[in-house]
Amino acid sequence: MTSSTPPELTLDLIRSAAAGLAGVAHHTPTVRSRTLDAQVSAEVLVKCESFQRGGSFKFRGAYTYVAAHLDEVRQRGVCTVSSGNHAQAVAITARNLGLRCAVLMPHDAPAAKLEATRSYGAQVEQYDRFSMPQAQAGAAFAERTGLTMVPAYNHPLIAAGAGTAVLEVAGQSSAVDVLLAPIGGGGLISGCGTAVKALSPTATVIGVEAAASAVTQRSLRAGQRVEIELTPHLADGQMLTTPGSWTFGIMQRVVDDVVLVTDDEIRAAMRFLFDRMKLVVEPSGAAACAALLAGKVDVAGQRVAVIVSGGNIGVDRFGDLMTEEASAAVRGVPRPHLR
Amino acid sequence: MTSSTPPELTLDLIRSAAAGLAGVAHHTPTVRSRTLDAQVSAEVLVKCESFQRGGSFKFRGAYTYVAAHLDEVRQRGVCTVSSGNHAQAVAITARNLGLRCAVLMPHDAPAAKLEATRSYGAQVEQYDRFSMPQAQAGAAFAERTGLTMVPAYNHPLIAAGAGTAVLEVAGQSSAVDVLLAPIGGGGLISGCGTAVKALSPTATVIGVEAAASAVTQRSLRAGQRVEIELTPHLADGQMLTTPGSWTFGIMQRVVDDVVLVTDDEIRAAMRFLFDRMKLVVEPSGAAACAALLAGKVDVAGQRVAVIVSGGNIGVDRFGDLMTEEASAAVRGVPRPHLR
Q1: Which ranges constitute the DSSP H helices of A200-280?
Q2: ipTM of the complex as predicted
Q3: Which of A18, B135, B202, B292 is such that its CA lies 20 to 30 A from the CA of A104?
Q4: Beta-bridge mates of residue B126
């Protein structure tokens, strides 16, 4: 398989990705909380990709893509452009397969993610994402380095890898009625949404994005990809000027609705996940839970799978965000666990 | 079965406890970290009882004990005395089985544990643990309330329940060479140690306690239970004046060694578990990992099970401890993940 003939994203492709990941990726835990269930009157299955290798779901797609292009990348090595989680995923994949690796990361990427990516052996360069679109910066980087670019989301193999997370949830229970997943570039929800709908055609797939961006919600409503200016917000894993050209078509097919969460709602969800579920979750990783806890989706009586997409937040940044969260609570932003 | 004829602690009793807990307690995840494995040159299986109901391993024992005494407690209700985790476990058990419940907690128990215990429907009273031994305070409390006391650790059914955690680790892998578990009253290590040695007679069982206490280490070396004055330290789940009268005999049989960890080492382990493994762990829950990370036990080349016994620490207290940890790092206490 070469990059010139991308496969179609189907349940079979996702199952084949799962076979390739067996023994390489972690089968991450799905955890439950009676407090959460009671609060939303539903049966909630929290799929914890925070425990995936590299601390997020990204490894599933990166490894799947690179393993499918081994002949090409063995000579050239790999590179990518990413705010952090995909960078770590590509770096771990490269180390695993013995490949050269370089990564272009935004200058405002969290220090913990920069450090982690370097620790996996990748060479790291930085750029200003507020002055240059990611795609353009990435293309120039690949050109200059001569390395094979591993896409962060905009490819069927990346989405198929990400979709394997939902197969693991399905393996532990009967079909889910609702899937809630954060939307960044759209790879995660394309893969998971395709798998969920193939397994249970009546299931509802809800994407969650930052209210400060809302680019996917607006694009889906417009029936075409719109472009926005980037404004800084908390969920650094969900910061794009436009949906992926390929993922957008998939999302048009499998995403039933997109709901929005504020930074305050994300911080409150992070506190809930820590206090009540003992989970370390980064802001974009908490977006889907935030939508649930803030009542953005009515799931009463349903079986709901929620993807916690990553946990890459250092102790110190977490502490800063929780201090802000305490201030938000004083301003009157409700804490879900105090309802 | 009545409290007057306690059963013998055997692998069969632990298996029978596991059968009773099926569908009631969580089968908690066992997680791995390549960083941790590399650091100690071993295969480390981290059993996360932080994800157990009530946030610690305690539910396993409390439910096992109460379910075995249903005839008696259905009329009278239950009570206990505990710094927090056992209190929550008894409260959840009582709510599950529809029993009255009152709990005596030390006045310095963390606010999160007091609040959580109340939230499960238990009536909470407080006492000063530095002026009155726990056993004496508990006996007076049971006498006054007329409720049946659920022991926190000093009973075969409590230990058998706790020991079920290790059966779940064993179910996921071949036998372990080393078990590392924190020691408070001794119920956890009695149950887990008994199970591990029954499954693999050559396995080594290492207990970990706070250096500020060391009461079990000193008692085992003396061949009899010694008494100490309580001094405040970080691991509030490991604060006793003397080992349990019954658990001590079991520990003499199954515990090969006891190692000590300082508050600084516990804080550093909590940071490592958060940053690198995305786990929320309370101080006593991190003690066994702290011993591993601080190099108190040589496990090179071994398959090691480490019990993370609980995760009941609120965001705010966690933040305070991590601020102290950062100061300790400045003082020169090595951070395990920076080695």
Answers
A1: 215-222, 245-254, 263-277
A2: 0.91
A3: A18
A4: B105
Scanning every residue of chain B, which has its alpha carbon at the shortest distance from the alpha carbon of A319?
A: B319
Disruptive mutation site among B315, B321, B322, B330 for chain A (greatest number of A CBs within 10 Å): B315
Q: B152-165 burial, b if ≥16 CB within 10 A, otherwise e? A: bbbbbbbbbbbbbb
Q: How confident is the model at residue B285 (pLDDT cuts 50, 70, 90)?
A: very high
User: Which strands, in side-by-side order, build the sheet including A303-308?
Assistant: A30-31, A43-48, A303-308, A178-182, A204-210, A257-261
The pLDDT tens digits of the residues spanning B136-185 come to 899 999 999 999 999 999 999 999 999 999 999 977 666 899 999 999 99
Domain limits, CATH 3.40.50.1100, in chain B: 11-56+155-330, 58-149
| CATH fold of A58-149 | Rossmann fold (3.40.50)
Pairing of strands A30-31, A43-48: antiparallel
Q: In terms of C-beta density within 10 A (0-12 exposed, 13-18 middle, 19 or more buried), how is residue A97 classed?
A: middle
- Please tell me which residue of chain A has the smallest CA distance to B314: A275
**Backbone phi and psi for residue A328, each to the nearest 5 degrees, phi listed first:** -60, -40
Fold entry, domain A11-56+155-330:
Rossmann fold (3.40.50)
